[in-house]
Amino acid sequence: PGTYTIDGRLGPSVLEVADGAVRFVDSACTTHRCVASGAHRHAGEVAACLPNRVTVAVRGGAGRYDTLHY
Q: How many CB atoms are located within 10 Å of the residue 24 CB?
């Protein structure tokens, strides 16, 4: 648990880990879609701030899906 600052291409991205989930609290991007994506807690979920080139993936445990079809 805690708050972590990651230096990205545009500036800092702030991530919070709490209650078994991770989320973007703030980022140097202009749209803040990463912040709006909310908390991610299931194995295999990924949150990204593409303009700032910062990504975070949830690992461990069982994933939410056993298979995906496209």
A: 26
